[in-house]
Write a structure and sequence with these properties.
By secondary structure, the chain is an all-alpha fold. Helices cover 78% and strands 0% of the residues.
Length: 407
Amino acid sequence: MLSTFSGLPRTAWVVFAGTVVNRLGYVVTPFLVFYLGARGIPIAQTPYVLGALGAGNLIGPVVGGLLADRVGRRPTMLTGLIGTALAQGLLLAAPNVLTLALAAALLSAAGSMVSPAAGALLADTVPAERRRTAFSLLHWAINIGTAVAGILGGFLATHGYWLLFAMDAATSLAFALIVVTLLPGGDAVAARAADSASGVGYGVVFRDPLMRALLPLIGVGLAIYSLTEVCLPLAIRDRGLPATTLGLMATLNAALVVVLQPIATNVLARYRQITVYVCASVLATTGIALTGVAHDAWSYGGTVVLWSIGEAMVGGIPGAIVASLAPADARGRYQGSYQWTWGIARFITLSVGTTVYAAAGPAVVWWFSAIAGIAAALGVGALAPMIARRTAVPTPVPVPAEAAASA
């Protein structure tokens, strides 16, 4: 599998290793509801903490992208990782709902600062023609770590919730140590460059007409994918299936993506990335929409297989596209904008998805998924010529033989 990613620079592999280590500790958020229940927090007050957790995901990417361009990639990653470890301790020790919510917001904000800086660092160090593979490697690392964390979290939770917080803090600090010892520190030039052509804020992104068109379309796809966190559990419950069915679906998704993504990256490398993105998005959207007709574990498993294959095909294509569109002095902010789009899509889905499901009915959710998801994918496809012009890798001009000989 690793041969798929051969030839990438050392920095890409360091970010990969650190991301795997960090995601191994992604055990607090999935079990946060259970932890709050064990603390005696009333169900009516739980949304305050979960809402704060979602709000932090809207703040962190914006700050992380800005700092990545202003002060550098490594300092931003370190700030986010150390902040995450500190927030874990605050969340564990928080005495009431207000402090729990504040700690949850800090946790998600600090954690989501890391990705824009890591993405900008990949764009800095990986040649344009290899960015698609590099971002696919990063996406693969997230899935590897998350898959193991799901199993590990269940084991730790049975022995004490404090172990979840300790694990998450330890892996964040381990990634910080990897950043300090193994990542290059010479990003001061990139940081200073932010004061030149592109200014100091996110105006450089908002003034880019292609990004203004692209990000909302990608956001629709991300919002529909987030329905697998919100409405898939509701659908399984409404069919009278046990909670273990949801666990099986999560395990199936993680296993398929971990196994298939390197294969998909290798096989699909010969095709244009926009073509792959559109086909994969349509497949994933179709799989998610078919959740509405599933009725037992086997049929739910079939829908999960479809959208998991789509996820494996997409890999890191959106991040790679955004990286290639970004000016060299604004890569952090472009990655921050993409991660913010992901955060707001997930926040909206988590906030509105259950309401629509309950008030309008499941059919509305699944039909919306099919229609909006396919339309958004085709919209990205329509932008392909403009994206191709902006991301084209310059072809070296051949040197005449006579000139080479005289040199």
